[in-house]
Specification:
heterodimer; A: MetI-like fold; 0% strand; B: alpha/beta; four-stranded antiparallel sheet; 9 helices; binds adenosine-5'-triphosphate; binds magnesium ion
Chain lengths: 261, 262
């Protein structure tokens, strides 16, 4: 392992820090010298608000509580869409009959974005968590299906033959060859659908919830407390980044056979 | 297993007027046109053919990967149809399972034929060592060079204990130096393990270095053009007088074959 920074990466760190610093400075100066400051908090106010947010509740729970609530909702919807999407994708990719039946209907549903389902979902499921799970589910589901399906239909047929020559029984081909070939595609699906799920939960919470990060940013605007809005946005960006990073780490572990090192 | 290896003269693979055609753009195109061949136990047979003359197709038919259009294949005097546990294959494209480690690839056959874990590990390790990959058991195929990948392919075929091993231009993509080393190793392994080998190549030196018998195939549609029994002592010198003479003769034959095909 090498931890030494090369000249190029030092330069990148310095320039990056400079960029972030100037962003905060411009924000601060704008607040001081324009009317923007009367409605919008300055960076130190945001920092203080963030610390306070972790201690005192905003609405029903603290900032951490809102993050936890949103993540919990994502977890439910995302797990559902991942599992179901993988199964349907495998079915459509590996079975000709499955594709013939499901692909047309899927193609009609696929272009409808998750948020467009909100009114129907509210009518069916009422205001509350069930609707939020559903919105997250529809967003992730099509992406999961698309990726897994392309994985399952791109299985190297020569490898199936190789395995059969080596004595693999026909009814073991699916678990032994097709499924492992699909793992990288499943991961791409999981990655893409995770960021969609995170966006979907925010949209759903803005409309049908009284807690969570999505509610926080909307409530901040509606009540005129812009600080809460900014806190919510920072939390959203941060969580999105953490989720994507975790996903990439997991992928690197499970799909190491695709990488050259 | 001991009994099988004693007798050196029985026929292990017999091809009887074997034919193959493919439907290409709605037309039947004949690729193989009546091949007759009788292969003895533990023989090292080299099929020497031009490019695109149906060599891979022929091996795939023996392995059960392609249907037989006409004629018969007998393996140990039994008419063969489909996969056969006495046949193993090393592929032109290496065709390793990319998500399995070297160990996972080599133990694949025994594992799916029901061998217990300790037994198949032992066997796989034996062949991994034999092909010179000790220490690479946990590597994935992408982490290996082309030559090493092909060694895995060879170990994988042997570890399944087939009586007959088909090798489809296994060194076609390797540089000359690696290729030479691999040829030496294949011969050593064969001398030690025996088995009946059917080896496809379009490299004359490789054919002469390895073969007990060289079968020269015609251009497409392929038939047997000529056959050479090579009884030079092993390991062979590539510069002995007899070696050079045979090389000259076969290369003249190959040239004639090419000009005939036009
Ligand atoms: N499944 C198939 N369907 C249609 N045509 C095929 C099929 N497999 C092979 N062919 C054709 O049969 C011919 C012989 O192919 P084959 O791969 O057996 O030749 P080869 O001698 O192994 O070639 P190479 O020297 O490139 O390894 C080629 O023209 C090929 O296009
Ligand atoms: Mg070939």
């Amino acid at each position: 392992m090498k931890f030494k920074l090369s000249g190029k990466s030092i330069q990148a760190v310095v320039l990056g820090t400079l960029g972030i610093l100037s962003f905060f400075i411009i924000w601060q100066l704008t607040c001081i010298f324009t009317k923007f400051g009367t409605i919008f908090p300055t960076p130190p106010e945001v920092a203080a608000g963030m610390i306070r947010g972790f201690i005192e509740p905003i609405g029903s729970v603290t900032l951490l509580g809102h993050i936890g609530i949103s993540l919990g909702r994502v977890l439910v919807g995302y797990t559902l869409s991942s599992v179901l999407g993988t199964l349907v994708g495998l079915l459509m990719g590996a079975s000709r009959l499955g594709k013939a039946i499901l692909y047309p209907i899927f193609n009609i549903i696929k272009p409808i974005p998750g948020i467009a389902w909100i009114p129907i979902a509210i009518m069916w499921l009422g205001i509350g968590n069930a609707t939020i799970y559903f919105i997250i589910f529809v967003g992730g589901f099509s992406q999961m299906v698309m990726n897994v399906m392309s994985g399952a239909s791109n299985v190297d047929q020569e490898l199936v033959g190789v395995a059969r020559v080596l004595g693999l029984k026909k009814n073991h081909v699916f678990l032994t060859i097709i499924l492992p070939s699909c793992v990288p595609y499943i991961f791409t699906g999981l990655q893409v659908s995770l960021s969609t799920s995170w966006m979907a939960v925010l949209a759903a919470e803005m409309i049908t919830a009284t807690s969570g990060c999505g509610w926080l940013i909307l409530a901040g605007m509606q009540s005129g407390i812009m600080l809460n809005n900014v806190l919510g946005m920072i939390a959203i960006g941060f969580i999105g980044l953490v989720l994507a990073t975790l996903m990439r780490m997991l992928e690197r572990r499970l799909c190491s056979w695709k990488e050259r090192n | 297993m001991e009994g099988k290896k004693l007798n050196g003269n029985e026929s292990v693979v017999r091809l009887e007027n074997l034919k193959k055609s493919f439907e290409i753009n709605g037309e039947d195109v004949q690729i193989i046109n009546g091949i007759n061949l009788d292969i003895k136990k533990n023989e090292f047979i080299v099929l020497f053919g031009a490019g695109q003359c149906g060599k891979t197709t022929l091996l795939k038919m023996i392995a059960g990967l392609e249907d037989i259009t006409d004629g018969n294949i007998y393996i140990n005097d039994k008419k063969s149809s489909g996969f056969n546990e006495d046949v193993g294959m090393v592929y032109q494209t290496t065709a390793l399972f990319p998500w399995l480690s070297v160990m996972g690839n080599v133990e694949f056959g025994p594992k799916h034929r029901g061998a217990a874990k300790s037994e198949r590990r032992k066997k796989a390790q034996y062949y991994i060592d034999l092909v010179g990959l000790s220490g690479f058991e946990k590597h994935f195929p992408v982490q290996l060079s082309g030559g090493m990948q092909q060694r895995v392919g060879i170990a994988r075929a042997y570890a399944n204990d087939p009586e007959i091993i088909l090798m489809d231009e296994p060194f076609g993509h390797l540089d000359a130096q690696t290729r030479y080393l691999m040829e030496e190793d294949v011969e050593k392994i064969w001398a030690r393990e025996k088995r009946t080998v059917i080896f496809v190549t379009n490299n004359i030196e490789e054919a002469l270095y390895l073969a007990d018998r060289i079968i020269i195939l015609t251009e497409c549609p392929a038939t047997v053009m000529k056959e050479y029994v090579i009884d030079l002592p092993r390991p062979r010198s590539m510069v002995s007088e007899e070696f050079l003479r045979l090389r000259e003769e076969i290369s003249r034959l190959a040239d004639a074959r090419e000009s005939e095909a036009g």
